[in-house]
Amino acid sequence: MVAVLDDAWPPLDRAARDRLGRRAAAAARALGDQDVVAVALTWVDTSGITRTKAVPTARLGHAAEWGVGMSPVFDAFLLDDSITTGRYAGGPVGDLRLHPDLDRLTPLAALPGWAWAPADRYAQDGTVHPLDARALLRRETARLAAGGWSVRAAFEIEWVVSEGDGDDDGFVPACHGPAYGMTRISELPDYLRDVLTSLAATGVTVVQIHPEYSAGQYELSVAPEDPVGAADTAVLVRETIRAVTLRHGLAASFSPKVEADAVGNGQHVHLSLWRDGAPEPADGAGPVNAMTGGDGPFGMTAAAESFAAGILERLPALLAVGAPSVASYLRLIPSHWAGAYACWGLENREAALRFVTGPDDERTQAANLEIKCFDAAANPYLALAALLAAGRAGIGAEAVLPAPVDVDPASLEPADLAGRGIVRLPTSLGAAVRAFEADPVLRDALGEAVIDTVAAVRRGEIDLLDGASPEEIAAATRWRH
């Protein structure tokens, strides 16, 4: 038997099911008044692909009460929809129930007539599925909270826009202006407007949007939230962008490497650690950002430094969930602002961990840590759960950061790198998986079933693309994420 995640979310009993059913029935009536005819329930699989089952709006109450059946085999799906087998996942036997999170139920402006809700996955007996990444993230958030800490998180979303419908014709940039150039906004103004208005209509707070470096590439940043909310928003943002792009007769790709010789798409993670219930003169008692106001490097508190140090120490292992595809390692190369070296620095965009202070008068809100080596092939729930576990371990060990790096680490001589303890992050998915399996903190936090299943899926995809050229790897991955 695999341990259930009861400390993350209690089992569904009869009373809980009744409450969910009544609440969902009322929500369904409200959706019907908005001409919403169906609700898409989503979860993100181990390979980072958002999967779904949908119900007519009239069936939302039943779905919330009893769940929607689906096979647990999706935990063992590879990016090409083939299936591998691990000790805890794979095969035709079994059933799970998808229960919509009604707190996040959202009409989709980009898909009129449709609503969306992230799903929690339960077994038929009402216990949480041990491979449910959303529950894992909820548990890690609760574990931090037990120590008086909370985290605010946000994902940066990078994507490219292509002419065509994402078929075998490859990638044809839908805009041709220079990197970061205003020309790219002028080329696709209606498209970008529709992305922004659709996100606003779904309740997403967009902080900024801009053209990125690679051909046809854009980036969008959103406001920070609690970790589960941030992962939900990452899914909602990507699927909204995808829907808007298709409606404009274009195709969107979030793949880490759309073309072998071009800059890839990252999905950087921003984290800030907050002390709950601490005094804050402006507002009375309330959470205080531990990333500033301390005596540590660049104003970090001791706990924030330890949190960052815990993440830095485990970056090679964390790549198995944060840079989880074979294509990820075509992106993770030096001097491309991808964070290919295990080091940190103040506003250093070549370091895997970039410390961001924000403007002087905004540091109490803005100071945060950016993880630059993660990309959009990651399951955002699993990636955040692993990051929080690593940070929590750092706090517990009172870990200390090494000296910051204020240059491109690729510019340093090998002896200088060694003397400063700077190492290159894994250059292959296989190396990251080995580090992941060997890390005791992640194994304890995520559980044996997660470790085994992640490793099995990663090795399945390594075998799938064994011997492929970089161009073939990019082509095989291009339209999957």
Automatic annotation (TrEMBL):
Pfam families: Gln-synt_C. This is Glutamine synthetase family protein. The keyword Nucleotide-binding applies. Keywords: ATP-binding, Ligase, Nucleotide-binding. Residues 133-481 form the GS catalytic domain. It comes from Actinomadura miaoliensis. Residues 34-126 form the GS beta-grasp domain. Belongs to the glutamine synthetase family. The keyword Ligase applies.
